[in-house]
Write a structure and sequence with these properties.
With 137 residues, the chain is of the alpha+beta class. It is built from five helices and five strands. The chain binds zinc ion.
Length: 137
């Protein structure tokens, strides 16, 4: 996955900030984050001062290209995920906000049950399950 190249190819302006944001995302392929967390991380790593609007706009651009997506949990900031290998379902702890990737095998089983129950075809899971993790239980 080359986020910066995809932006370039699709006519987006490439700036130093965008380059840093893309590099950070690519080096944390399983990282799940909200804009505030990404903002803190990128500015602590790069010693630069990239504002949240720049980060947000870059995320929107990547999302338009289908490379990224976000999910909402009630009363919490949007969480962004890179699109990779159909690994797009996450389980989040409502107490500590820990996020766990749901295995593809589990997703396939869930999809089969849904297909059987509803007769829907090609069900696409881009969502979050909310629960309580073992540590918080
Ligand atoms: Zn927890």
């Amino acid at each position: 996955m080359n986020l910066l190249n995809s932006l370039k190819k699709n006519g987006y302006r490439i700036t130093k900030s965008r380059k840093l944001i893309c590099e950070l995302l690519e080096s944390n392929i399983h990282f799940h984050f909200n804009v505030k967390q990404l903002h803190q991380k990128i500015n602590s790593l790069s010693k630069s001062n990239i504002d949240r609007t720049t980060i947000y706009r870059t995320l929107v651009a990547l999302e338009e290209l289908g490379l990224l997506q976000h999910s909402h949990i009630p009363h919490k900031p949007a969480i962004y995920f890179l699109n990779n290998d159909n690994q797009n379902v996450h389980l989040i702890c409502e107490m500590c906000d820990k996020i766990v990737d749901v295995e593809n095998d589990s997703i396939n089983s869930i999809n089969l049950i849904l297909q059987k129950d509803t007769n829907f075809d090609t069900i696409n899971n881009n969502f979050i399950f909310v629960g309580k993790c073992p540590e918080c239980n």
